[in-house]
Amino acid sequence: MTASPSFLGLPDRLSDGLPRVVIFGAGHGSTYPGKDSSAHALAADVIRAASQDDAGLFEHWDFDLDGPLFEGKQVCCIDAGDIPTTRHDNAGNRARIEAKTREVLALPAVPIMLGGDDSVPIPFIAGFADHGPVWVLQIDAHIDWREEVDGERYGYSNPMRRVSEMAHVAGMVQVGMRGVGSARVTEIEAARHYGSRIVTAREVHTQGVEAALGHIPEGARVVVTLDCDGLDPSIMPGVMARSPGGLTYTQVIDLIAGVGKRARIAGFDLVELYAPADIDGLSALTAARLLVNAIGTIVRQV
To answer: How far does the signal peptide extend, from start to end residue (predicted)?
Structure first.
């Protein structure tokens, strides 16, 4: 079997020094009983494939970043490939994702995880337990605050509820919410009682990204978790739950850049790309560009 290309053709290790950024994939997290997460597990390699047209262009000017990806300096990001995950091995998958996150943080480096459905951010953020406090910026169409679904408490409707229970998480900003999802009145009340700052997509459209960034304390260490359905389906059709009125590409990269300027990105994950629903590779291309922006922003952090 031919090995999948790495993201942007990045190496899997550096010949000189330690990386500042480590990318890894996590195909499966905690799958609900009777559900199949196999299509979500395709996401990391689909995104890697979409990045290949830009592989080797590190010295070219990037107008999102106002300069080359690595600012003309040595490449400092690696793609470590995928960690082994198995559908329905929920506890095992969580343990492996958390362990890999801790491993990257110990280098020290900034981990970037490619999911996978929206259950994988739970162990990813759990991996920061010894590196807190952290704030969490969730970009998503849904607040994901269910207590449990079919007896499973760590699935794709539960991540922000579980994250709110982590002692090292100091606060949370949830941005991009719109339409109807899994949230009931009780989930909204629970999120607000916790102190989550919920910023709807409409608020971002009318007030700009500062409607969300203003809630993040200056200098905070922030883990960004980006669910692809947070973006509008006109540019991100490859998701399970399309919802009109989502964030634009520019709004999302402005959120990423804004965190890097106001605070510090300590970790980043991108999840919920559903390749079977993509149109002409548009979602994979958009996701790849979002990751380029995340890498470029992290590299520019002091």
So the answer is: none
